[in-house]
Structure formats: C-alpha cells, structure tokens
Amino acid sequence: MTWLKDVIGTEKAIIAMCHLLPLPGDPYFEKDKGMDYVVEMARKDLRALQEGGVDAVMFSNEFSLPYLTDVKTETVAAMARIIGEIKGDIKIPFGVNVLWDAKKSLDLAVATGAQFVREIFTGVYASDFGIWNTNVGETVRHQYRIGGEGVKLLFNIVPEAAKYMAERDIETVAKSTVFNNRPDALCVSGLTAGTETDSQILKRVKDAVPDTVVLANTGVRLANLEQQLSIADGAVVGTTFKYDGKFENHVEQDRVRVFMDKVKAFRER
Asked: Per the domain annotation, does 1 fall within a domain?
C-alpha cells in the first residue's frame, strides 16, 4: 500500500488539474474582468471536477504563460486568494503547483493547507524558458523551515518543454532521484500539457524504482487510461477533462464522469 491510499483515499488515484486563468502580472490577465472572474471560473471548474468524481485536485497557474522559474509575489498572492475564497467548496484532497518555482509552490501549500505539490525539484535543463537550474537541497530545507514537512513532494523528472543538459538515461535519473531525495512520487510527462506520456518510458521508470509511487503526468485519456494505469500508480489529468479535450477550455463535468466511471471499473478489476 502506498501513501496515495492514506492521503487521497485510493490506489490508482486520479489527481485532476484545476487550471487557473491568467493572474495579475501575467501578460494575458483580463484586467477588465479582474480577479473576481478568475475566482469564479476556478470555482466552476472545481465543482465540475468534484461532481464528476475525481479523487483529488491540484491548482496550478497553468495560464501564466510564458512561465517563470522565479515566480513573482503577485502570482502566489493571487493563487492564495483564489484557493482561500473557494476552500469551503473543496471536498477532496488538494495540492498546488506554482509553475515553475518549487519554493513558492511550498509557500502556497503551507499557506493554504495543501497536501501535496508537484514541481521540477532536481536537474539542470535547456528549456523554452532558458537555462533552468534547481537546488533541491535548499528547497527541501525551505520546506522544513516553513513547517511544510508533511507536504508530499511529486517530482516531475521528465520536464515539459525542457531537456536535461547532460545525457542521462531515464532509469539513472529515477534511481538517483529516489536515492538522493526520497521523493513521494515521480511524475513522467510528455512534451507539453495534454501530450501522451510514453508508456515505455513510464514502464522503465516504474521498473527502476518499484517501491516509489510513479504517476503518468500528461495525456491520459479514455483510450489509453487502462494501459497507463496498468503501469503507473495513478495519473495527473487536466486537458482530457475539458470541453472537446482542448487545453484552453474549461472543465466539462460529463467528460469527467465518463472518465472516472472507467477508472473505477478498472480499479474494481
């Protein structure tokens, strides 16, 4: 049994993404509609996800494009306001992800009571956002300094829109990440949000670290969920739950329900 059962309530857990609209300071923030609109759209998506039957939800500033690796204070403040305003509506376990800043993800988690965060905690990358470095030792020490030692850390080891600067096979990355950092989970992704996670890479990671939770991080959909969940311990799902399966749209409750019905049938088998 993994920590997924204790924290989320089930093995083969589905963590749904609640993608927040552009926030103050982001290039595409809709100033005429303001923060009240962002809050209400987050509430709408949260309700659709919960009523559709997902196991947990993760809030992220997915539309803060182009992303920063040193996120500004106004972004974290806006995310804290949103979660604070809708927290009374949250009925399932939740996590947060401040893209792409591990320390600020932990700050937000401690401030809001989130049970987990997903981030790029380790590695150095050539990315769409420039040279992307990390400092996991400092990040984890920051976690303990702010009282966040109970927050589960989901390490994304196949970063989206980025590549390791040194050639390392994925098994080596998985094994060294687990040995050096004791992650609560490893997340395996495709190139971008909504892009299918390569099932062969997923299997290689799980085989390399069989005692660590491994999550399919992108592109899980009706057509491949059984294949992905037969390898992974769970999945992070966002784009699949949206109208027409398009990244830029809002969540469609019926799509969530159909997906989760199939997941529950798979778990019962």
From this structure: no
**Would you mind telling me the total number of residues written for the chain in this entry?**
269
Total number of domains in the chain: 1
- What CATH number corresponds to the domain at position 235? 3.20.20.390
Contact between residue 231 and residue 203 where contact means Cβ atoms under 8 Å apart: yes
What b/e string do you get for 127-160 counting C-beta neighbours within 10 Å, with b at 16 or more?
Answer: beeeebebebeebbebbeeeebeebbbbbbbbbb
Task: Identify the H or E element spanning 88.
Answer: none
pLDDT digits (tens, 9 = 90+) for 7-57: 999 999 999 999 999 999 999 999 999 999 999 999 999 999 999 999 999
Q: Is residue 7 situated within a structural domain?
A: no
Residue 6 lies in a domain: no
- Whose structure tokens read 């290689």? 204
Contacts of 177 (CB under 8 A, 6+ apart): 122, 155, 157, 183, 186
Residue-number span of the structural domain to which 209 is assigned = 12-268
Please check whether residue 4 lies inside any domain of the structure.
no
Q: Are strands 125-127 and 130-132 parallel, antiparallel or unpaired?
A: antiparallel
pTM exceeds cut of 0.85: yes
